[in-house]
Design brief:
about 50% helix, single chain, 3 strands
Length: about 210
C-alpha cells in the first residue's frame, strides 16, 4: 500500500502583523500556529491510524474515526479558506467586481444586504462555527449558511466562496465575547478579489451537480 498523503499547515498570505488593528499579531499567531496546526496534526494522526489498520488488517471504530476525521479535516479546509479570504489592513477596503458583483446585486440587491445576512449568520451561530457564502453549482444560487463547529450543515458539493470563523479562539483575545464587533471589523478585511476568483471557478462547474 502507498504511504498516505498528509496535510501541512499552510503559510499565511501575509505576515502576523498585517491584520492589525482588526486582528492583533498575538491573536493571529495563536489562531494559526496553535489552533489550525492542531487540526492538521489531528487529521494526520487519524489518517495514519486508518492506514495502519488497513496494512495489518485490524479493526477500528470507523464510526468514531470517520466523525473525528470529518471534524479535523473540515477545520483545516475552512481555516485555509479563511486566511485567503483576508487581506492586509493597510490595503484598505475593497468591493466585489465583475461577475461576482453582478451576481450579488442580482440575488441580494446590494452588497449591504449580503453583508447584513452574512453578519447575522455569523453572530447568531449557536456556539462554535462559521458563516459561509456558498453557491449551488446546479442553479448558480448564492446562499449564506452556518456551519456548526467544522462539519455540520455544510451542503456537500457546494463550493466555499467566503467564510468567517466565529469560534471564540478566532477573536477572544482581541474582542472578549463581543462577536458582533469582531465580525463587523473583519468584514473590512475581506479580499474580494479572492472571493471573485472562487466564484468564477465555481461558475465554470455550474450544472455539474446531480439533478
Amino acid at each position: 500500500m502507498e504511504t498516505p498523503k498528509l496535510y501541512a499547515l499552510p503559510d499565511l498570505p501575509f505576515d502576523y502583523k498585517a491584520l492589525e488593528p482588526v486582528i492583533s499579531e498575538h491573536q493571529l499567531t495563536i489562531h494559526h500556529q496553535k489552533h489550525h496546526q492542531a487540526y492538521v496534526n489531528a487529521a494526520n494522526a487519524l489518517i495514519q491510524k486508518i492506514a495502519a489498520s488497513r496494512q495489518d488488517g485490524t479493526d477500528i471504530d470507523i464510526k468514531a474515526i470517520a466523525k473525528d476525521l470529518s471534524f479535523q479535516v473540515g477545520g483545516h479546509v475552512l481555516h485555509t479558506k479563511f486566511w485567503k479570504n483576508l487581506k492586509p489592513a493597510a490595503a484598505g477596503k475593497s468591493e466585489p467586481e465583475g461577475d461576482l458583483k453582478e451576481a450579488i446585486e442580482s440575488q441580494f440587491g446590494t452588497l449591504d444586504r449580503l453583508k447584513k445576512e452574512f453578519l447575522l449568520a455569523a453572530t447568531s451561530c449557536e456556539g462554535s462555527g462559521w458563516a459561509v457564502l456558498t453557491m449551488c453549482k446546479k442553479t448558480g444560487g448564492l446562499f449564506v449558511i452556518q456551519v456548526e463547529k467544522h462539519n455540520i450543515n455544510l451542503v456537500p458539493g457546494f463550493p466555499i466562496l467566503l467564510v468567517l470563523d466565529v469560534w471564540e479562539h478566532a477573536y477572544y483575545l482581541d474582542y472578549a465575547n463581543d462577536r458582533a464587533k469582531y465580525a463587523n471589523a473583519v468584514w473590512d478585511l475581506i479580499n474580494w478579489s479572492e472571493v471573485g476568483k472562487r466564484f468564477v471557478k465555481s461558475k465554470k462547474l455550474q450544472n455539474t451537480c446531480a439533478s
